[in-house]
Each structure stands twice: as C-alpha cells, then as structure tokens.
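I'm stuck. Protein, please.
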Amino acid sequence: MKKVTPAHVAVGGFAAGLLTSSERPAVTVAVALAAAVFGSRWWGIGPENGTNPHHRAALALAVVFLGAAVGEARLRAIEAPTTRVRQAEVHNLRIHLLSMPRPNPFGASAEVTVVSGRLRNERLLMRIARWTRLPDRIDVGEELAADGQVRGLRPGEEFTDQLRRAGIAGELLLDRARATGRRRGGVAGALDAMRRRAEGAVAAGLPPPEAALARGMVLGQDEAIDETTRQDWRDSGLSHLLAVSGQNVMLLVALAMPLLALVRAGPLARGAALLALIALYVPLAGAGPSLQRAGVMGAAGIVAMTLSRPASRWYALLLAAAATLALNPRVSADPGWQLSFAAVAGILALGRPLGAALAGATEELLPVTRSPLARALVRGFAEGVAITLAATLATGPLVALHFGAVPLAGLLANLLALPAVAPAMWLGMVKAALGIVGGVAPPARAVAELLGPPARIPLAYLEGLAERCAGIQGSRLALPLHSAGDVAAAYLLIAAAILGIRHAVRRRRRAGLRPGYAERAAAWRRAPRSFRVAVLVLILTVLALATATGLGSPSPPGDLTVRFLDIGQGDATLVQDGHGANALFDAGPPEGAVYRRLRAAGVGRLDLAVSTHQSRDHQGGFHELIGRMPIGLFLTNGYGTRDPDYHRMLHEADAAGIHRTVAEAGELLHVGRMTVRILGPPPHEPGAPPPEDPNPIGVAAVVSQGAFDLWLSADAESDGILGYPLPPVEAMKVSHHGSADPGLPKVLDRLRPKIAAIEVGRHNGYGHPTPSTLAALSHAGVTTYRTDDDGTVTLTIDHGAMHVTTER
C-alpha cells in the first residue's frame, strides 16, 4: 500500500462518518477521536510540508463529523417518503415497472415507481399473489394501471430493513393490473429501449436455461433463472457470477482496450471512451449497489491512468465506499455490500503477492514458459487463482455470519470456472453491444444470433460445474458466526495465520534453502524437455481424472430403492427399481430443489411422473423438471381444477412433447420391474365443479416389486381412502405431512406397514406432524421417520430385507 495521503484520510474519514451516521452519535464520536489520533500520529505529511499534528487531527475530526452530518441528512431524505405512504385502497394507480416480477413462495414481487397522484415518484414494492393475473407481456419501463392496497413499511416485519436500505417507501398489494400502452420517457426510457435490445441479443441463439444465465451474468437480469439453478450456484460458491459487479467492469475494460488500441486512440480519447462505456453499462445492467461500487472504482482507476498518475487501488476502494454510502448510508448493512468490499480488500492485500509467488513457482516448474505467450498465459492463470484464493479467504467470515455456513466447494468451483468466465462474459457483452446497435444496423442482430452457439459452450460448462459442485457431499461447512465480535475474531485468526506463514517463509529465506532442494530443482531443469512435459501431462491427467470422478454424476442404485425426499413442506417420493427405471410421485414446491435431489440419486430420466392433485407443494417442482429432465409418462389428476399454475404445468408438458394422461382408478402401470396400481380417486364427472378441498381426491397407489409393496396416498386421508381396497404393505408415506386424522388407526390396521415416512418441512406453521398422528403410528408399532428431522429417508430392499438410511 502506498503512503497515506491527505486524500486517503479525507475520503476514509468521510466514509467512516457516513458509516456511523445512522442514529449512533456515540459511535460517531468514538470514530472521530480514533481518526484524530490516526491523523495526528500516522498521517504521512511532515513539518516540511507546513503541517502539524494539531492541524491533521482537526482535519480528521472535521471530515468524520462532516460524513456523519451528510449521512444524517441523507437518511432523513430517504425516510421522508415513508411518512407519505399510508394504508389505503387505490384504483387505477399509474405505475412504472422498475424490475421484472421475481417469483417467491407467495407469488411474485417487483419494484415500481408511482407516476400519478400524491405518491408520485415514490418507489414501492409491488406484491403479486399467485392468483393475481398480470398482462401477458410486460417489461421494465412499461406503465400499468393498478388496483389494490398501498401500505407503509411495518417495523419488525421480515425484509423491512432490507426494503428501507433499497429506498423502498412502501408496498403495493396488487389485486389487478392492466397495461396502459404507455412507457416512461426521457433518459430512463431510452435506457429501457437499449436494455430490451441488449437483453434480446444476449439471449439470441441460446436455449432458455443458458439464455437466463447469460442475462444474469451480463445484465444482472436473473429473474428467469429457476430456483434450483440459483440454489446450485449459491451452494457451489458461484452465485457472485450471477450478480453484475466489479468483475463485469474489469472484463468490459479488458475487452474494450484492444479495440481502442486498434483505432489508435490516444490516452485522453481512450480514457473518455472507457468512462463513457462504464457510464452506459452501469445503468444498462441495473445499477445495483455492487455495480455502482465497481463503476466508481473503475472510473477512479481510469482517470488516474489517463492522467499518467499511479492509481491508488486503496483510494479507489475508499472512494467507492464514500460514494455508495453517500447515496444510502444504510447500504453498509447489506450483505452484498459487505461481501463486495471484503473481497476487493482481500484481493488488494493478498492478490498481488500471492499471484507473484504462484507465477514464479509455476515458471520454475513448467518447461514451456520461455515463450512470451506461454509466460503471459501462466501469469494470467496464476493471477486468476490468486484473486480467487484471496477473495474466498476474505469473504469467508462474512459468508458464515450471514448464511450460517461456508461453501467448501466454492474454492474448487471458482478455480475450475476460471477458463469459462471471461469467454462467457465477453461473448455476452459483444452480443449485448450488437443488440444495442441493432436498432440502426439490423444485420447486427443476426450476428448476435450466430454467436449463440459459441456462447452456449462456456455457459453450459458453468451450469454443469455449479450443479456438480453443489451436489458434492459435505460441500457446505456449518460455521455459524452470530455477532460482529465473532467475525472480528475470525479475521484476527486469519490475519495471524497469514502473518505466521509470512514469518516462516522469511526465516527460511534467511536460513537458505533446505539441503538438497537446490540440487533437485537444478536436476529438474536439466532433465530433457520431453521428460518434463510427460511428467506434467501425467500429473495433470491424474488431477483431471480425480476431479471428473469427484464431480461426476452418481450412479443409480443396484437394488429396489425408495427415497422420501427432503424438499421442505411438500411431497416428493422417488422409487427406483434397481435396474434403471425411475418413478416420481409429486415434485414438492418450486423452491424444494427436487431436480438436484433426483440428480444426486443418479436419475437422468423419469419413466413415470405422477402429479397426484392440484397443490403448490406437490406440483410446483414439476416446472423445473419438465424443462430439464426427460419424462416418459406424465400421470396427472387435475379433477377439474382451474388453478392457473396447474394448467401452466400441463402446457409446459405439452410444449416439451411429454406424453401425459389422467390417472384412473383401477389402472395398472408397468415401470421397469415395478408395478403401479392406481386405487383412486373415482372418476371426475365431466362438467362438475372442482372440489373445494383437493386433498381427499389425491391419487392413491400401491407400488410393488417382488414381495415388497409401498403405499402412497399424497394428501388423501382416511375419509378419502378407507373406501379403497387397502392391501397389507411393507412401507408407506403418511398422508398430508402427518396432519391430524382421526381415522388413521383404521388405515394402519388394514395396511399393517412396518416402516412409515412423513414428508414434512422443518418449523412449518401447520403443526405437522401432529402428536395424535405420531401416537397412532407408535401404537401400531410402525417405525417412523420424518424428513424434517432425518432429511431424505432412503429405504433399500435387498433380497427381501429392508434397510433404512437417513441424511441427518
């Protein structure tokens, strides 16, 4: 780090004041006093420059208090709109859509700004219930006329603080919305049009999954990424790639520099062009907090480079902190803000020395680093590895604080992702640029389409890598840090370890190399080039095979296996015949990540999928399965339902060419070596209205193979199934997540199972499983497992003997 200058102290003190401005005057005073001590003793300006400790201390105090004052004023300005939002019914409220609706367990949500009435220009979070219909085609910037209820943010409610940090003044609970045919204008409208063209071009020539990833990586538009993919990228430590950030700005500059050199742009023209690119890209990609920081830091570095002055990376980081905190002092509580700054600080502190050490060691060992190109590749790869290691180490304690666990697979995943990230980003950025100019040069869109297949290669690789690394057993280390003190202690331990390693390395250098090391190194360098290449190829081959083995897809079981899947509050039961055939009864809720569970069980294809009845916690997971996994036969049971989500599932199955049919009582299906007997429900009368409660008419079935029988009845309880010819079985899934069922003892008396499983979510609000159900199972002598306590419950039948293993 360079010598501390007045600019460092001023910007750092101002940022510190902003950090302490949120109703914490005592902290502000403490920080100001610390700044005064720092300014008077360690600020690198001496008496020869006409300064003295008192002046330095006074300036340090002043900038901290100035930052606190600016922060307080900014907070009052942010809070002012929240006092204007009161609970009221609204009709025909004109709003502009600021973000595409993002699905959640209760429906969806999107940010909007009001364009009429007393709440004009206020930002609201629009909450959209599952049964609320939006216009068929909407996008950012479109004007809607909304009916519903407006209410202010409520202290103590979940996400209230997060909404306040984002500048949201209140909520709009939407009942109805219709498009007015108008859009916002001005600069925002022009950016909307550019964003639409860029989004279309980025997705051009790509299948939907890769198109969604490309839009997320390049433009920050990740709402189309399904929940399982999102969870895979989180658990594998790659989720930062889906949020536009400093990496995007860095790659954009790296892509533009050779083009500017080709046109022989001078330093000033080059700097102006790069600043214009950043100024365009930041709002085009959504202008999120991480991208704002990256834009500020990138602009500071470019200005320093343009003026031929050495860029202070630490100063750029401080400047980014001050700028983003000045916009919203509360952003410091945002996990993304904290992780972004921790990652950059770690890279600045450790990245360069670690990269130099790795490059030196690699050049010493590799026999091909004599050519300039090979040396540049080695140094580039070493720098990428060093940056990954430094950022992972620097963010680890904060990840543990906010998420309760550290993704151990994250380091491996990020290292393996290095070769694909830049090509995916660059191709996406080129496609976006072609889309933007496509309005005046139509052939550009055709070129963007042609770039789709090449762009799919790195995107598909990253998608598969995230899936494999997220599925590694033990990929997440539970490490709950509960307070700022815990985080500080963790960082102190990391710093102590780094200092200890540095001290040991310096002692070894002073003492000289270990005996024999120099001779072995010299012998390696004297060995024939072909021998060294062969050894390195052998080592790399072994590492590649080991990695491929560790990340490969699991093999299907060799015995009849039943898996009661842990997908939260919902149902998903997988039956595998031990010879490659797979049957799935229900797929849980959309957030249940059933696809990952199936892949972990070695499932590449479903021979039979059964949607037992209309219910989100049973049908929701089929949306992702239909698009990602082949399905031989899809058995459905809508029973006349008008639920739009259920019919969307059917349309998706038809569009994917999946053969589907309605479940019929008395039907007999053969799936591999399994037999599936459908016992109910009775046929639905054509034209009859759907039942108010779909649970009693859920599909009830017996799955048999050899002497083993399994009872599955979805949510149908005793009142719906006691009229069926219930046979004795070896195992069963307890109906309706273990809810209270007075007739359960009679059901158990007829089924006489030895093993039962309850598929139920942890800490659910329904009280499932109920004490009465657990008591009935215990009284009947049934060994009972539950997914909320045991995780996925796996029942294996080997030569007639049943063996149970649990995930937890």
User: Anything to note?
Assistant: The chain has five domains: 6-82, 85-184, 199-481, 522-552, 560-684+694-806. Confidence is low (pLDDT under 50) at residues 44-50. The chain is about 50% helix and 15% strand. Residues 53-84 form the longest helix (32 residues).
